[in-house]
Automatic annotation (TrEMBL):
Residue ranges that the Swiss-Prot or TrEMBL entry lists as coiled coil: none
GO function terms (MF aspect): catalytic activity
Source superkingdom: Eukaryota
Membrane spanning residue stretches: none
InterPro entries linked to this entry: 6-hairpin_glycosidase_sf, 6hp_glycosidase-like_sf, Bac_rhamnosid6H
Protein name in the entry: Alpha-L-rhamnosidase six-hairpin glycosidase domain-containing protein
Annotated ranges, domain Alpha-L-rhamnosidase six-hairpin glycosidase: 419-654
GO BP terms in the entry: carbohydrate metabolic process
Length: 833
């Protein structure tokens, strides 16, 4: 039977219509492309005027001219969902000689009510604005574009700060990523339950916002003949100075607005260390917090920055400048790391001897080393809304040896300071912060890309990027970057080891992704280029197996998937799954010795877990061994990964899924039963995403009944994830990043793979992966679905279009392959339930 269902998913957004006028998503307007940089713009769909941000009674926006004055100083703009890019606005008229306006950004509406928006994000540079507010001083009509990217926001305000009036039109963002509405993507999903369509779309938008094309995120430093022009941002730190200490670092600087900023004794973890800001006596913006950033002063702190966000820095120390520092004048600033403090002078006059006393409690081995107060590199970055030139940097050791010298007039320095334009197409853990390339989070992202945008090339680029940073020799041989910066370069990797390699199991997630890539594409030829590197990484992971337990345990390793515990179930089971998948790759590459080895290793890991970590009292796998004994706690990933690896048998899987009840708190599942219940208990979408997929595997591969898995799926799909959809003030059209530590949009691929039912499966006879159309109808029915329709992108182009419906126990379905030759799909759908 032909199903009369829409080709487009127009209804997808119906559930997101609130208030007046919000009737469509921010519409991309495409202009001709120039170079590799996009010319697409995102414009608001609705606006409101008032004395404060407004969420209700917004009016439709279409380039509308809006006048701000002292009675209505705040313009609120709603883009309907997360967009990203360079903010711009056109001023058509203004009164007075100069008008100051402050632009503010936030993903959630509430961020607009905070002084700093939903930021700042002062932890890494991220090739974006580190701040979520930016002030402009407008003197003539015309269009202004910010120098910096704002990485993800649904909401914006424009606030008039001066006692003038200004008329603004054509406000928006010049795109830094291409984000298209879900109904225009190659992949799509539409079901008889609108909420599921919305959940699918969260991942489709999140991957578009956080996967960036090569060279699309420009450097945040501008190199000129007068040195580097550096606008207020999180400082970039040199990769070349981590080992030096007790030196004098000097540079020439010319402030063009507000102040200049620099570091010494900065560590490999994003430059955590001493930070100084020298402000001028020039004009300050009305938005400047004069208490935190007084003019004509030296401000000294230790940590990330002079203001706190979710990680704290030492309370800043303030010193009045002994002579006025002027804008647009050159000065020579030097900082000597002495036994008693940082000795700072400007043009040979001492400005401060900053004592270490109040900084010492903030020395953090996790962010650098215990000697960080006097040892570490140097860096540059003025504070918010400031702008300064920096040139002729010189570092001289205690014994008078010149350690470093650079004129700062060549773009060669950008990667050294972590601020080079991104050379590779990569996926960030989140579009807004911290904008690093976390390879663990990518395990979900890769599968979301495959079912939504079909951008398999991003997966390939991520694999290429990650292997480019692999250590091929030395003590870390085999290890790949797990928390890389877009702005760095492979030649500097060793500087960041081990500081930026804190989660050992992210290496396992990368192995998993290599196997997932093969599952999705069957392209052994692509993986053959990295097969030597893959084997070297597996070998590196094998060194972490404790010989007495056969489990992953090593004092130098840390396991994210087991809350840092050793001899734990989840990371060991994750390794087992990775090895099973890589054994299939090995066979495809005719490396049969390796295939057999990986299969045997995986079997041993499985045995080690079952003999030591199955806990009959809990009816679940213990999270880990404690003092050699299985402990009394269990965790979501202990269940999810033993199921995915097939380590759990049918009765263990059944019992482990039932035992998840103990982890349910309010609306979702806690990572572990050792975590208490409180207002700050985190319910991770990343972790629950792995659980979501494993429940379908428990049913399809381990014979766990629908009665057992459906209640848990119901909690995840009908209770937990819909929180991201059904609250207007928090809705962003993408999965939440500000609420928890990592992106988690697993419903996107799980709904396509198991509810629509189109996925890749291994044919046990041929050893090849192929497409199946095999919806898990009993579960779909258990979740109350009566029909599903969707498209699934194919590697190499084209898509599979499929649908099914159940009425009175009769199943109807259709399946087509579009725009592709020779793609076989094994249709396994029954005609009756
Ligand atoms: C704002 O400017 C108007 C005239 O343009 C003046 O009458 C008023 O006193 C000013 N208000 C403040 C707070 O400066
Ligand atoms: C704003 O621009 C005007 C005109 O150029 C200038 O006089 C004023 O100092 C500027 N204000 C700030 C805070 O930069
Ligand atoms: C900060 O100082 C400047 C001039 O020194 C002033 O115009 C501005 O209003 C002050 N800002 C605040 C928030 O007090
Ligand atoms: C500070 O030193 C620079 C040279 O580094 C010189 O050009 C400038 O005139 C000096 N400024 C003052 C106020 O002495
Ligand atoms: C700090 O530098 C000044 C010169 O600017 C010098 O006179 C003083 O001795 C130095 N102090 C220390 C503790 O090194
Ligand atoms: C001076 O110090 C540097 C760096 O610590 C060292 O490499 C060099 O050998 C030293 N030179 C002398 C002459 O002691
Ligand atoms: C598989 O990977 C190889 C090597 O990168 C590439 O040349 C080829 O085009 C890929 N195959 C497909 C179908 O894209
Ligand atoms: C793998 O081989 C490639 C090409 O020969 C080489 O560039 C790369 O460094 C090798 N990787 C390892 C881990 O040995
Ligand atoms: C698996 O475990 C057995 C028994 O402990 C051992 O003999 C064998 O070498 C192990 N296999 C691998 C590949 O480590
Ligand atoms: C793993 O467990 C074994 C057996 O209890 C113990 O000897 C070993 O120290 C543990 N490893 C770590 C890193 O805690
Ligand atoms: C699931 O049931 C099928 C059919 O009864 C059986 O062949 C298979 O071995 C079972 N699988 C497991 C893991 O128990
Ligand atoms: C399903 O059952 C209902 C009620 O018994 C009936 O009205 C409807 O026509 C049936 N649909 C089909 C496709 O048989």
């Amino acid at each position: 039977m032909m199903l009369n269902l829409p080709r487009s998913y127009a209804k997808l957004w119906a559930i997101f219509v609130w208030g007046l006028g919000i009737i469509s998503l921010a519409n991309p307007i495409t202009k001709p492309k120039v170079g590799s940089r996009s010319q697409t713009s995102y414009t608001p769909v609705a606006f409101g005027l008032g004395t404060a941000p407004v969420i209700d009674s917004l009016q439709p926006y279409s380039g509308t001219s809006v006048t701000l004055d002292s009675s209505t100083p705040v313009l609120t703009l709603d883009y309907a969902a997360d967009v990203a890019g360079f903010p711009y606005f056109e001023v058509t008229s203004l009164t007075g000689s100069a008008t100051q306006i402050e632009l503010k950004y936030s993903e959630q509406f509430n961020g607009l009510n905070l002084d700093s928006g939903d930021g700042p994000w002062l932890y890494t540079n991220g090739l974006s604005n580190s701040f979520r507010t930016e002030t402009f001083n407008i003197t003539i009509p015309g269009t202004t574009e910010s120098f910096f990217i704002q990485g993800a926001q649904r909401w914006q305000t424009v606030e008039l700060l001066s006692n003038t009036s200004i008329t603004i039109s054509n406000i928006g963002f010049r795109a830094s990523v291409e984000i298209n509405p879900p109904d225009t993507l190659v992949g799509g999903f539409c079901a008889s339950n609108d909420v599921y369509d919305g959940l699918w779309s969260l991942g489709a938008r999140a991957v578009q916002a956080s996967c960036v094309e090569a060279d699309s995120q420009p450097s945040t430093w501008e190199i000129s003949g007068d040195g580097a022009l550096i606008r207020g941002q999180y400082p970039g730190t040199s990769a070349l100075g981590m080992k030096y200490g007790d030196y004098t670092m000097s540079f020439s600087t010319k402030i063009t607005r507000g102040g200049t900023g620099w570091r010494v004794a900065a560590g490999p973890n994003a430059g955590y260390g001493a930070y100084f800001v020298l402000t001028s006596n020039g004009p300050q913006y009305l938005s400047t917090d004069n208490a935190t950033v007084p003019s004509d002063s030296l401000i000294a702190t230790y940590g990330f920055s002079i203001v706190n966000f979710y990680l704290s820095s030492a309370p800043p120390l303030y010193y009045a400048n002994p002579f006025p520092i002027l804008d647009d004048e050159w000065y020579r600033v030097s900082t000597t790391i002495t036994p008693s403090g940082y000795n700072i002078s400007v043009n040979d006059t001492q400005f401060a001897l900053v004592p270490y006393t109040t900084f010492l409690p903030y020395v953090n081995a996790g962010f650098g080393g215990s000697e960080l107060i006097t040892t570490g590199s140097w860096g540059f970055g003025p504070f918010q809304d400031q702008v300064a030139y920096v040139k002729d940097v010189e570092v001289i050791g205690q014994n008078g040896t010149m350690l470093y010298t650079n004129s700062f007039t060549s773009t060669d320095i950008l990667a050294e300071y972590l601020v080079a334009s991104n050379a590779y197409a990569v996926c960030l853990d989140g579009a807004k912060r911290d904008r690093e390339v976390w390879i663990g989070d990518f395990a979900h992202t890769a599968k979301e890309l495959a079912v939504s945008t079909g951008r398999y090339d991003f997966i390939e680029s991520m694999i290429e990027f990650t292997f480019a940073g692999q250590f091929t020799s030395g003590p870390a041989a085999g290890i790949v970057p797990m928390q890389d910066s877009m702005g760095s370069a492979p030649e500097y990797q060793s500087v960041y080891y081990p500081s930026q390699y804190g989660e050992t199991d992210y290496e396992l997630f990368f192995l998993l992704t290599l196997g997932d890539y093969y599952t999705l594409t069957s392209n052994a030829s692509f993986l053959s280029k990295y097969w030597n590197g893959t084997k070297l990484l597996v070998d590196a992971m094998l060194t972490y197996i404790d010989p007495s337990t056969g489990l992953l345990a090593n004092p130098s390793a840390s396991w994210f998937t087991a809350q840092g515990q050793q001899n734990a179930t989840a990371p060991t089971a994750l390794f087992a799954t990775s090895l099973q998948q890589l054994a299939i790759v090995a066979s495809a590459l005719q490396d049969l010795t390796t295939a057999a080895h990986y299969t045997a290793l995986s079997a041993n890991l499985s045995t080690a877990i079952n003999t030591q970590l199955w806990n009959p009292t809990l009816g679940a796998y213990s999270t880990a061994l404690a003092n050699g004994v299985r402990e009394g706690y269990t965790s979501v990933l202990a269940a999810a990964f033993t199921i995915r690896a097939g380590i759990a048998n049918s009765s263990q899987a059944t019992s482990a899924v039932q035992a998840l009840d103990a982890l349910f708190y309010l609306i979702g599942y806690k990572d572990s039963s050792a975590v208490g219940n409180s207002a700050t208990t985190q319910l991770s979408p990343n972790v629950q995403g792995f659980l979501l997929e494993s429940l379908f595997l428990a049913y399809t591969q381990l014979n766990v009944t629908a009665e057992v898995v459906v209640p848990v799926l119901h909690n995840l799909l009908d209770v937990y994830w819909p929180q991201m959809l059904n609250q207007n003030e928090y809705f962003t059209g993408a999965s939440w990043e500000y609420f928890v530590s990592s992106v988690g949009s697993a419903p996107t691929y799980v709904l396509t793979n198991y509810i629509l039912g189109v996925r890749r499966e291994l044919d046990g006879d041929t050893g090849e992966y192929g497409w199946v159309f095999d919806p898990v109808l009993e579960i779909a029915e258990g979740l109350g679905l009566t029909w599903v329709y969707g498209n699934v992108p194919l590697y190499g182009g084209g898509w599979i279009e499929a649908s099914w419906a159940i009425e009175n126990g009769t199943v109807t379905s259709s399946m087509d392959v579009n725009d592709a030759e020779g793609v076989k799909v094994d249709v396994r759908i029954p005609s009756h339930l």
